[in-house]
Amino acid sequence: MGEQGKRVAVFGAGYVGLVTGACFAELGHRVTVRDVIPEKIAILERGEVPIYEPGLDELLERNRQRLTFTTDVGEAIDGAEFVYVAVGTPPTFSGDADLSAVWTVIDELPPVDHRIVVAMKSTVPVGTGAKVRHRLDARGLGHVGYVSNPEFTAEGTAVKDFMEPDRIVIGSFDQVDADAVAALHEGIDAPIVRADVASAEMIKLAANAALMTRISFINEIANVCEATGADVVKVAEGIGYDRRIGNSFLRAGVGFGGSCFPKDSLALKQLAANSGYHFQVLNAVIEVNELQKRRVIGKLSELLGSLRGKRIALLGLAFKPNTDDTREAPAFVLAGRLLAEGADVVAWDPIASSDGLHGVEQVTTVEEAARDADAVVLVTEWPQLRDVDWPAIVATMRRPVFVDGRNMLDPGAMRGAGFTYDAIGRAAPTG
Ligand code: UGA
């Protein structure tokens, strides 16, 4: 099998770990996924998938023979040539990344006599690799290699992003380890960027920061469009054709959320601040995003007056379509603000749940959500929202107010259907 058929242990059975494990198995490697939560491992052992990620269940099913799941560190490491760290690095109260789960993996690594390579998939501050190296050396594990191999997969397209990435980044202290990790990816056609460990760590943080900057930039352009009568959708199209700019991540809306961007922006901001640098652009990107999530409240107040006692329907709870993930979802911030204003909030989402949103009524159809509502807010651009019979919905609402937080629907058609339709950075509402 040549370079294929390696033994890989993956620590962490979350989105990143499961996708990494399943994709390595698809490439022909034998993978053991280890997690500390027994229920999660039990679900995986039964052949079920604890998260919603398109294509992941098929991949796990197809590679069942090459995949094992365990809670036991020894079993995971036994015979492994690579140890992938894919545990969570949530923000602490100070905004720094909490690396305790990473350190647990490193400290639990049993003494091994053969060369294994520890590969960091989790997003970590620049300098983490150097600290891990030091800790391994101090434990007499100088022969254990270390690489930074960050992930650039987005939820909802994670399997495709892993198998057909724009690039693979490998940061190493030792060329041999970089070669081994590059070989592990054999079968994937993508440029490999080899770097030192610190630069690889920074590539991950900088890539996400660049994407967030584009979103906050277009959101501010949208806000100026609103004030001046321009249409941000046209503007994004017009600037996107410029090859130096490109057209991705220029969709204005209610702001970014998810398990990565908000956390990573804070981590990079804090990383810079801890080193004595005030990262002005990133601070603005974060602040713009916070304000953007709340702009819909202003729009609703303008259209409805006081929101007390008004029934507001939120369409979409997930932070983006094709995921059940609601971490840092704009819908949750919106719901919280609406409840605080005294509104009644009803929410629809095809797969995400309103768990944790006390006081929000969750319904199973768009029609139910809109019935008797004073306003509908489209928060997540679920594709099925294009197929809703909107003209039929107008008549069932108390007031036909529609705020399209993702600029998903056609303003002319929505107004033609009888809605008082407003969006983000588009012409002012009429009718
Ligand atoms: C993001 C990156 O896209 C991945 O490359 C990265 O690997 C991942 O974070 C990570 O660090 O793990 P993800 O958070 O899954 O992936 O989702 P995105 O598709 O990037 O969307 C993030 C947020 O930005 C969503 O709330 C989305 O609605 C918003 N967004 C995106 C916009 O508001 N406008 C856009 O034009 C694009």
How many strands in all? 14
Sheet/helix structural class: alpha/beta
> Please, how many helices?
16
Q: Strand percentage, roughly?
A: 5-15%
Helix content: 40-55%
Report the sheet with the most strands, covering strand number, pairing sense and barrel closure: 8 strands, mixed
Shape: elongated
Q: How far is it from the N-terminal to the C-terminal residue, by CA?
A: 67 Å
Low-confidence stretches: none
CATH superfamily of the largest domain: NAD(P)-binding Rossmann-like Domain
Q: What's the average pLDDT? A: 95
Rounded to the nearest angstrom, the radius of gyration is 24 Å
Q: What do these coordinates show?
A:
It is a single chain. With 431 residues, the protein is an alpha/beta fold. The chain folds into two domains: 2-196, NAD(P)-binding Rossmann-like Domain (Rossmann fold), CATH 3.40.50.720; 227-423, Rossmann fold (3-Layer(aba) Sandwich), CATH 3.40.50. It has 16 helices and 14 strands. The strands form two sheets. The chain has an eight-stranded mixed beta sheet with strand order 3-2-1-4-5-6-7-8, sandwiched between helices. The chain has a six-stranded parallel beta sheet with strand order 11-10-9-12-13-14. Helix 9 (197-228) packs parallel to helix 12 (280-304). The longest helix is centred in the middle third of the chain and has 32 residues, at 197-228. The mean pLDDT is 95. Residues 123, 151-155, 208, 211, 215, 249-251, 253, 256-258, 260-261, 264, 319-320 line the site of uridine-5'-diphosphate-glucuronic acid.
Provide tags for this entry.
six-stranded parallel β-sheet, 431 residues, Rossmann fold, 16 helices, 41% helix, binds uridine-5'-diphosphate-glucuronic acid
